[in-house]
């Protein structure tokens, strides 16, 4: 089974017109659907994609229509390929529920469990709009505990938005990491997938293969004295899963060379 992992699309139909700051950087960026379409087409020409996982920040503070448009675009681009998503700190839950599903706007988290013959995927929402580092409540953790127990007979692939290792980024790791790791420890977790940092990273965490995928929009590079250089850069991970275990992993990172802005982030 081939699983494509992407993250941090930060899509908007139209980015706010601005000259300065973070919004000014976004205003200089091309639609992330342009490179996404290109790389999806390249992948589909040479391999079969069985599942696509998107680990959060689907939009950049998106409106209801942004979510509706993005879902329709992805469904058309992916055809019959199944898609699993989680939300990130730039996703507004009320707009997601209304636009992605056509349901009543709600602040409730979006969790997803998909069972396959040889493993299950649990997508766990550890994000909250306006909290850059992520946050969850006791109800969310209780949901995860119950689902892990329900699916304990199968290997599990876990998906979150926020990263769990402090050494991988200058951005703080998710504050709930230790509680999360203690919760999953008794179960057969085959890998953990996430995004958020916009940089590829691969390691193990408590013996579990751990993958952070690059973004499908932009990346920030620290250049010293509080300055961050933002540039368009795109990437994805491709995993081959056999009998519930990742047997092969490929990472592609595409460097456009297009610098958007250098900002003082102090």
The unreliable regions are: none
Distance between the termini: 44 Å
| Number of helices in the DSSP assignment | 6
State the secondary-structure class: alpha/beta
Query: Mind telling me the CATH superfamily name?
Result: Metallo-dependent phosphatases
> What is the domain tally?
1
CATH class: Alpha Beta
Total E-strand runs? 12
Rg over alpha carbons: 18 Å
The CATH topology name reads Purple Acid Phosphatase, chain A, domain 2
Oligomer: single chain
Shape: globular
- Which whole number gives the mean pLDDT? 96
Helix percent band: 10-25%
SSE series: EHHEHEHEEHEHEEEEEE
Protein name: Metallophosphoesterase
Domain Calcineurin-like phosphoesterase: 1-199
Family: Belongs to the cyclic nucleotide phosphodiesterase class-III family.
Keywords: Hydrolase, Iron, Metal-binding
Question: Your description of this structure?
Answer:
The chain has 266 residues and is an alpha/beta fold. It has a single domain, classed as Metallo-dependent phosphatases (Purple Acid Phosphatase, chain A, domain 2, 4-Layer Sandwich), CATH 3.60.21. It has six helices and twelve strands. Strands 1, 2, 3, 10, 11 and 12 form a six-stranded mixed sheet that branches. A six-stranded mixed sheet has the order 4-5-6-7-9-8, with no helix packed on it. Strand 10 (216-224) and strand 11 (227-242) form a beta hairpin. The longest helix has 15 residues, at 64-78. The radius of gyration is 18 Å and the shape is globular. The termini are far apart. The relative contact order is 0.17. The mean pLDDT is 96.
């Amino acid at each position: 089974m081939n699983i494509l992992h992407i993250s941090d699309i930060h899509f908007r139909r139209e980015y706010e017109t601005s000259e300065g700051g973070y919004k000014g950087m976004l205003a200089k960026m091309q639609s992330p659907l342009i490179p996404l379409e290109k790389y999806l087409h390249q992948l589909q020409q040479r391999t079969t994609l069985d599942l696509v996982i998107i680990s959060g920040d689907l939009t950049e503070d998106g409106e209801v229509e942004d979510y509706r448009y993005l879902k329709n675009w992805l469904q058309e681009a992916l055809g019959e390929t199944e898609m699993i998503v989680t939300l990130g700190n730039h996703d507004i839950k009320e707009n997601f529920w209304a636009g992605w599903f056509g349901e009543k706007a709600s602040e409730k988290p979006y969790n997803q469990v998909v069972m396959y013959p040889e493993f299950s995927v649990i997508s766990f929402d550890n994000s909250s709009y306006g909290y850059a580092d992520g946050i969850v409540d006791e109800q969310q953790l209780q949901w995860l505990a119950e689902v892990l127990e329900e699916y304990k007979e199968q290997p599990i692939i876990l998906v979150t938005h926020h990263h769990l290792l402090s050494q991988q980024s200058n951005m703080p790791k998710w504050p709930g990491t230790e509680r999360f790791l203690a919760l999953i420890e008794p179960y057969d977790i085959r890998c953990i997938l996430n995004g958020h940092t916009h940089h590829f990273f691969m390691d193990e965490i408590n013996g579990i293969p751990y993958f952070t995928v690059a973004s499908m929009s932009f990346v920030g590079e620290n250049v010293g004295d509080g300055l961050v250089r933002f540039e368009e850069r795109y990437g994805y991970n491709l995993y081959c899963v056999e009998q519930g275990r990742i047997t092969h992993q490929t990472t592609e990172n595409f460097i456009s060379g297009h610098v958007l802005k250098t900002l003082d982030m102090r």
